[in-house]
Amino acid sequence: MGLFDRVEQRLERAVNGAFARAFKSEVQPVEIASAIRRAMDDRAAVVGHGRTFVPNLYTVELSETDYERLSAYDAELEKELIAAAQEHAESQRYQPGGPLQVLFSPSDELETGVFRLRTSTARHTGNTGLSRPVDRPAPPQPAPRHTPADDAVEATQLQAPATPPPARRVNPADRPWLDVDGERYPLMGAMTVLGRDNSADIVLDDPGISRRHSEIRVTTDGPHLVASIRDLNSTNGTFVNSERVSSHRLADGDRITVGRTTVTYRAGRR
């Protein structure tokens, strides 16, 4: 029996066990596990050959109160969350973009009992667990409670979470995508940030890349999707076909270089 089953049973039976005493009206571990499963389902993308790609990095933003309380259960909670996410991925035949990782960070914008979940794809993951972010941009305002969003999921114990509507699946073959060392990264959103920080949509493990290095915007031009890349004031710059750019409209086959990493832009099916 896992941590979340034990917590759920203790809460239902009103038993004052260790977690029931610790969390009270604060964020519950079962809520975080459920949010990770929902986020995984919402961001699932079929990339061909029967493979369904999902993010592998999940950053849980907590109020200062919840963050401090969770630190007492860091190792066990992290292990159980990753195990629950792995079990869900296997049951749905999802392929994470790398080793599953769960990170925690505090946010002074969140109230006790509310958390925000960020998802991204990291080819190489670093340390897991509780950490204080360094030089991170200010997070956006929290979305309304129990309203699913692409990159933010909030939950509270004050009322039962509503069942999110079925996610509308978009055929990734119609979307532009990036080829990173032979791996395909569909550009499913209107904006995709490349960088070294965990808040980036595609995390690249390269010391020459800034935390938030550049962004790719996908817009419509009549019946077609077009993309442009913009440098986010990075230290080492963004290059397209060996030329440094501040902003540039991308064409199929363009080679984008950030740090020591080169990726190829593909326009997708037209």
Q: Largest sheet, if any?
A: 10 strands, mixed
Just give the CATH class of the largest domain: Alpha Beta
CATH topology of the largest domain: hypothetical protein PF0899 fold
| Individual helix count | 5
Helix content: 10-25%
Structural class: alpha+beta
Description:
With 270 residues, the chain is of the alpha+beta class. The protein folds into two domains: 101 residues, FhaA, phosphopeptide-binding domain (DUF3662) (hypothetical protein PF0899 fold), CATH 3.30.2320.60; 95 residues, Tumour Suppressor Smad4 (Sandwich), CATH 2.60.200. Helix content is 21%, strand content 31%. The strands form three sheets. Strands 3, 5, 6, 7, 8, 11, 12, 13, 14 and 17 form a ten-stranded mixed sheet that branches. Helix 3 runs parallel beside helix 5. The longest helix is centred in the N-terminal third of the chain and has 19 residues. The chain is globular. It starts with a helix and ends with a strand. 35% of the residues are buried. About 17% of the residues have low confidence.
Helix/strand layout:
Blueprint: H1 3-12, H2 18-23, H3 29-42, E1 45-48, E2 51-54, E3 57-62, H4 64-70, H5 74-92, E4 94-96, E5 101-106, E6 115-122, E7 129-130, E8 154-155, E9 177-180, E10 183-186, E11 191-195, E12 202-203, E13 214-221, E14 224-231, E15 238-240, E16 243-245, E17 247-249, E18 255-258, E19 261-266
Parallel strand pairs: 2-4, 3-5, 5-7, 6-12, 11-12
Antiparallel strand pairs: 1-2, 3-6, 6-8, 9-10, 9-19, 11-13, 13-14, 14-17, 15-16, 15-18, 18-19
Helix pairs in contact: 3-5
